[in-house]
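Re: that chain you flagged

S.,

Sorry for the slow reply, it's been a week of failed gels. I finally had a moment to sit down with the sequence you sent. For the record, here it is as I used it:
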Amino acid sequence: IAVFGSARTRPDEPAYQTAVELSRRMREEGFMTITGAGPGIMAAGNEGAGREDSFGLDISLPFEASANEFIAGDPKLVKFNYFFTRKLSFVKEADAAVGLPGGFGTMDEIFEALTLIQTGKASIYPIVLLDGKGGTYWKFWKQFVDEHLARLGMISENDFHLFRVTDDVEEAVEEIVGFYRIFHSYRYVGDKIVLRLNAPLTEDSLAMIEEEFADVVKAGRMIQQKALEEEDDEEELSELVRLVFRHRRRDFGRLRQLIDAVNTSEVAAQK
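Prediction finished late last night. Pasting the structure tokens below so you have them in one place:
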């Protein structure tokens, strides 16, 4: 998971302690943590994950401290000169992103991830906007999105499925872990989207999903099958069952809803 947040948050602040607890819980669930390697929330993410399960993507700045004590000197600390290359690594290498309260940099990172996912330029993954218990930072951020971006038609209703706002660490953990309960990953082969699943869906579950999400299908049917020949370059995923259909490649919030439906579906017994 990528953890974003302010470099200026002190260790005695609720947001810092929340970031420590989040990364600790995600380590227990089998996830490593990637941070910007600096102080504040970034240090909290590395502290909670521990050095062994941490990565740091450090950025050269003329102000503010460099790598925090929890990742400094570690071989998994990578230094960057440019924000755009660092953001590429955050998006490309993470399986989820968690934003805690922060300044311009945090907004930049969260909006970058949302924009790339919304436009199909990056694969969908969970984005959780996490406050300390009782905090209102993301609550009021969402209010701005509601009252200005959505009201003026600058985003669609389905875009709200691309992120979750919460002040509960366990809810944040479940949002991420639940995303990979049955769903594993996806890729495109021509105009087909190939969803790789950890278990096959029952015929009834597949029929319900096909009916409910007919609007995302460009033509034809949803088919549950083995790996396509074009996926030979990912042999390690060859045993996963596939859900394949021709995708419209738009409204990725709706695709996120489909993934959520898959994750709450009944699965068939595997032979």
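What I noticed first: Helices lie at 14-28, 41-49, 83-93, 104-118, 137-150, 169-179, 203-212, 252-263.

Talk soon,
D.
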